């Protein structure tokens, strides 16, 4: 029999009655930090039945029933007699807390929804020229075996891909179920599990439909119209054999596999599945073979996934042999959870004990239960004080201030801090899948506190408001900061990030290694086009006439790579925070050292790495080069003023809607640099900017001819001010005292930004990619993996369907976003360049922001090493077969011997060690800035206006237009509101006898009103009032 993979189900009764040494080992879990270990053991409080602690355990809370020595079945019969069965059943759908009912319905009936993550990621591509990564599982092909990342189910589900038909992937599972989806989250993948397509043909021929729409396929699934098991038996048998082989491997190495968390170390970290396998398997297992077998990798994968808190698969990461990423929790987190669980279990056992047992002494609390009792009393006191200043709400946040918040309690028991630590993991950090057994623990703590009877569900959202009420986090905290946090980054609970261990010492820069190569660009005026609030000025442009209607466009980029070594602690910190965080209220630079900004932010006399292209007035690129330089004559100008000089206009009108709550700030503070206004420019400077604008437009037209997005949608933006507020951290407890609420302003901004800036920055990326490709320098190329293969289909779909909508200012449907994702393969990075269709470029790499984006810094390190090598040898590194080619040749992932030994990073280093972490960290950062973080601020403003009447009268409409985007098989309707394009959900109780799901189609428009808002989970729920129109697409 297999031993347990983890210690999740250690029996608390056994621990309580085990040997003293075992009990002492469990008690050591109380020490979850050095600070806790230094605290003296506190005396155990005495507890009597008259204690006010028990005042809230009347009938409303379930009075503890004294059963004496009755057997467990007799206890249950008594309980059943006293608590008649309720006619209510669990909801058919996934409830707002995120937990799904899998007791009444088969897994397939939940539709294998991907929760819109792919659409969220792809929306960035059409609203932002600087879109982040969105690696996609659309690269799954017929014959691939995947494990489905469905969080509402703890038993792994394996599914074989049968192929993509009419835009939908068809799968058949190991449990004999057929389902379809336009995209899903795969936790594990075996490429080419079935290599011979003939093996799949009988199943494919038995599919009920390969041409039906999404609605038709859903109806077929609900009718269980999939291929018969008799036809699919060989496939099921093959999948089951794979599972059996993986279990055999697991049994053989179970001793070490079951101790994975101890083996991999006490600190939190991110690691690939291969890295975990390397650490857990003996070296002999991999001898004489290039990699572990799929069965060996799956054995490790299932062990890690079985440990609720210790390991968490990162479902947004790209999935291949090297990129199945896990976030491993620290030993502090695991031990704190174990300790909290023991304390709550012992407390619940105490309540179940009789007050007396014959001649024996009265029941007595254990030390842990007694400390938990003290914690509950203090939590109640803190909550009651908080509610004098702020109301509790069921909307995922506590209400705005009615008066100054009370000073946080000055003393919490040691165990109380451990309980709070767990509550943060549970409610803030997205640490637990919805199938985790540990959800009971957070709910039990809240029920014991007895202050949340009005909550619909005692779930993580209530836990989040609990942390706000006791002063552990601010009332306006952004949950996405915690949910998207990755190992190696620590949050400051009052806002921003905690410093790194080495940040106490001054940052040290090396000598400028490119000094002998630098060209003085003093003869050129460099235009740095950024907002006045920009502090890291990392790019500027200039122009140089080359004669005959030809011009050199120079993009001058800040050059920190020349003085920061790739293996320095500054570089290591930048790798952990791979881009500047622009989330309002939580701004943090990738390099927050003053010396870096003062040395490299573009200014007269500072170094640059200059990307140059020789172009014609019609947008043809004739030549390119990269030159280390020094800028001298610098003009700072805002994008709005530069556009006014050039004569640019937004291709898509920007809505003028504004929504705000709170007190607007006075004039903001800006960096001390002189901004040039249009009237201050010389005639020559105006002409140069106009010429740059003309050339930028010509270059953009060339890209449009190759498929580039013609117009970027406007998008909501948020401005937040804390002016006039007070946020204080109590030095003795680290709890937070607040006064006031932030001002929040929601409006729209142009998604594409200035065409002058965007087009020229893309030119720099085009030059960087071409220059490195010609020399076979591995860099993080920005790719769309399937664009080359699907170019004809992409051109037809975008030109005929997608782009006309964008140019008309109309937002594509969720289905169209998914189709675009499936055709392009999403946005990713690779050392092998390929067509980037949506940019209209044969190859592209980001290169213009090394002060705020780690991927750009990586590219600079590689380029500068190549420049130094060419300078040292006096020879060009350009490969003859690549010179002048714009269409990439095939590239192997192996590194040529010695040829590129001068580079700081080999191709193998990048692909196997750096990219897996970089793509995940960069994607999480972009989602925090542009999607989840912004959405949460908007929903906080919505709650303050809707529930508390804040803001200008009439600015929040009483009703909204709700455009249907998806009808769920279990009768949930999803769509978009005509209020800042917010997504909303209509649950059955919101149908209001107005709509029936079977009659609703995608594209229908309903008039709705708000039913409730959950800012913590970033969800809006609406109630139907009437059917506006039926416009099924």
Descriptive report:
Helix 14 packs across helix 15 (414-427) and helix 22 (683-705) crosses helix 23 (755-774). The protein is α+β, with helices and mostly antiparallel strands and 1033 residues long. The strands form eight sheets. A five-stranded antiparallel sheet has the order 4-3-2-1-5. Strand 13 (606-616) and strand 14 form a beta hairpin. Mean pLDDT is 84; it is low at 1-67 and 102-118. Helix content is 33%, strand content 15%. The protein has 27 helices and 27 strands.
Anisotropy-based shape: globular
Distance between the termini: 55 Å
Spatially, the strands of the biggest sheet line up as 4-3-2-1-5
Radius of gyration (Å): 30 Å
Number of beta-strand segments: 27
What would the average pLDDT be, to the nearest integer?
A: 84
Q: What structural class results from the helix and strand content?
A: alpha+beta
As a percent range, the share of strand residues is: 15-25%
Helical percentage: 25-40%
> Helical segment tally?
27
Largest sheet: 5 strands, antiparallel
- Poorly predicted regions: 1-67, 102-118
InterPro entries: NA-bd_OB-fold (IPR012340), OB_CYT4_C (IPR057912), RNase_II/R (IPR001900), RNR_Ribonuclease (IPR050180), SH3_CYT4 (IPR056625), WH_CYT4 (IPR056624)
GO molecular function: 3'-5'-RNA exonuclease activity; RNA binding
Pfam families: OB_cyt-4, RNB, SH3_CYT4, WHD_CYT4
Protein name: RNB domain-containing protein
């Amino acid at each position: 029999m297999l031993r347990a993979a983890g210690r999740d189900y250690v029996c608390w009764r056994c621990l309580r009655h085990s040997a003293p040494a075992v009990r002492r080992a469990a008690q050591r879990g109380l020490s979850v930090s050095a600070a806790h270990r230094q605290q003296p053991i506190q005396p155990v409080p005495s507890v009597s039945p008259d204690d006010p602690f028990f005042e809230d355990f009347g009938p409303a809370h379930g009075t503890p029933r004294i059963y004496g020595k009755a057997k467990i079945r007799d206890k249950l019969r008594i309980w059943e007699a006293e608590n008649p069965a309720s006619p209510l059943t669990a909801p058919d759908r996934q409830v707002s807390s995120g937990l799904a009912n899998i007791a009444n319905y088969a897994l397939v009936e939940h539709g294998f929804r991907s929760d819109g993550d792919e659409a969220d990621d792809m929306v960035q591509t059409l609203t932002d020229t600087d879109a982040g990564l969105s690696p996609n599982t659309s690269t799954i092909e017929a014959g691939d075996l995947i494990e489905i990342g469905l969080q509402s189910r703890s038993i792994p589900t394996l599914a074989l891909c049968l192929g993509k038909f009419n835009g939908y992937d068809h799968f058949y599972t190991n449990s004999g179920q057929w389902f379809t989806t336009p995209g899903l989250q795969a936790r594990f993948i075996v490429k080419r599990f079935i290599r011979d397509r003939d093996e799949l043909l009988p199943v494919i021929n038995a599919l009920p439909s390969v041409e039906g729409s999404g609605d038709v396929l859903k109806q077929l699934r609900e009718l269980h119209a999939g291929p018969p098991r008799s036809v699919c038996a060989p496939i099921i048998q093959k999948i089951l054999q794979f599972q059996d082989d993986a279990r055999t491997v697991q049994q053989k190495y179970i001793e070490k596999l079951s101790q994975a968390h101890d083996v991999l170390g006490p600190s939190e970290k991110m690691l690939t599945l291969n890295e975990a396998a390397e650490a857990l398997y003996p070296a002999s297992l991999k001898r004489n073979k290039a990699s572990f077998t799929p069965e060996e990798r799956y054995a490790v994968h299932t062990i890690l996934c079985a440990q609720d808190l210790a390991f968490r698969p990162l479902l947004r990461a790209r999935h291949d042999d090297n990129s199945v990423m896990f976030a491993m929790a620290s030993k502090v987190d695991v031990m704190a959870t174990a300790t909290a669980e023991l304390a709550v279990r012992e407390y619940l056992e105490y309540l179940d004990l009789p007050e007396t047992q014959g001649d024996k002494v009265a029941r007595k609390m254990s030390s842990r239960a007694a400390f938990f009792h003290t914690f509950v009393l203090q939590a109640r006191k803190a909550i009651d004080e908080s509610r004098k200043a702020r109301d509790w709400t069921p909307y995922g946040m506590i209400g705005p201030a009615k008066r100054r918040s009370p000073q946080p309690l000055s003393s919490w028991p040691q165990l109380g801090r451990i309980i709070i630590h767990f509550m943060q993991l549970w409610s803030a950090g997205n640490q637990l899948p919805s199938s985790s057994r540990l959800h009971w623990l957070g709910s039990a703590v809240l029920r014991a506190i007895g202050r949340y009877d009005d909550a619909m569900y005692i779930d993580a959202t209530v836990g989040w408001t609990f942390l706000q009420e006791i002063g552990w986090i601010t009332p306006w905290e952004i949950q996405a900061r915690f949910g998207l946090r990755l190992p190696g980054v620590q949050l400051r609970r009052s806002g921003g990030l905690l410093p790194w261990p080495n940040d106490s010492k001054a940052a040290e820069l090396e000598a400028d290694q490119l000094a002998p190569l630098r060209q003085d660009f003093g003869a050129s005026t460099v235009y740095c086009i950024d907002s006045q609030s920009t502090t890291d000025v990392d790019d500027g442009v200039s122009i140089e006439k080359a004669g005959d209607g030809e011009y050199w466009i120079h993009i001058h980029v800040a050059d920190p790579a020349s003085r920061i070594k790739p293996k320095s602690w500054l570089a290591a910190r930048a790798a952990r925070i791979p881009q500047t965080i622009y989330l309002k209220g939580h701004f943090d630079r990738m390099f927050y050292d003053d010396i870096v900004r003062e040395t490299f932010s573009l200014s007269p006399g500072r170094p640059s790495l200059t990307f140059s292209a020789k172009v014609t007035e019609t947008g043809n690129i004739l030549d390119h080069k990269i030159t280390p330089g020094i800028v001298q004559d610098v003009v700072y100008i805002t994008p709005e003023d530069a556009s006014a000089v050039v004569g640019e206009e937004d291709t898509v009108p920007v809505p003028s809607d504004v929504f705000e709550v709170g007190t607007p700030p006075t004039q903001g503070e800006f960096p001390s640099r002189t901004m040039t206004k249009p009237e201050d420019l010389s005639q020559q400077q105006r002409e140069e900017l106009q010429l740059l604008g003309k050339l930028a437009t010509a270059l953009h037209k060339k890209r449009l001819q190759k498929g580039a997005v013609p117009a970027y949608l406007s998008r909501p933006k948020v401005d937040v001010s804390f002016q006039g507020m007070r946020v204080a951290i109590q030095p003795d407890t680290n709890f937070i005292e607040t006064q006031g609420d932030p001002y929040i302003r929601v409006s729209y901004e142009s998604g594409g930004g200035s065409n002058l800036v965007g087009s020229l920055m893309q030119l720099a990326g085009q030059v960087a990619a071409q220059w490195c490709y010609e020399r076979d320098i591995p860099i993080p190329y920005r790719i769309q993996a399937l664009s080359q293969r699907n170019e004809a289909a992409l051109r037809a779909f975008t030109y005929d369907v997608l782009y006309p909508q964008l140019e008309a200012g109309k937002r594509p449907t969720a289905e169209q976003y998914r189709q675009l994702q499936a055709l392009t393969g999403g946005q990713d990075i690779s050392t092998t360049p390929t067509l980037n269709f949506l940019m209209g470029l044969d190859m592209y790499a980001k290169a213009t922001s090394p002060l705020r984006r780690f991927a750009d810094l990586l590219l600079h390190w590689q380029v500068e090493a190549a420049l130094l090598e060419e300078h040292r040898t006096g020879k060009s590194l350009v490969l003859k077969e690549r010179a002048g080619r714009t269409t990439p040749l095939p590239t192997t992932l192996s590194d040529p011997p010695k040829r590129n030994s001068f580079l700081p990073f080999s191709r193998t280093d990048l692909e196997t060690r750096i990219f897996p972490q970089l793509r995940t960290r960069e994607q999480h950062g972009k989602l925090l800035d542009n999607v989840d973080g912004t959405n949460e601020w908007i929903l906080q403003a919505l709650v303050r206006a809707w529930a508390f009447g804040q803001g200008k009268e009439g600015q929040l409409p009483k009703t909204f237009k709700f455009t249907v985007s998806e009808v769920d098989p279990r009768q949930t309707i999803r769509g978009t509101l005509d209020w800042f394009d917010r997504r909303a959900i209509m649950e059955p109780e919101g149908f209001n006898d107005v709509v029936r799901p079977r009659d609703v189609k995608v594209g229908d428009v309903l008039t709705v009103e708000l039913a409730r808002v959950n800012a913590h989970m970033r969800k809006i729920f609406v109630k139907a009032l009437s059917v506006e129109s039926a416009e099924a697409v």
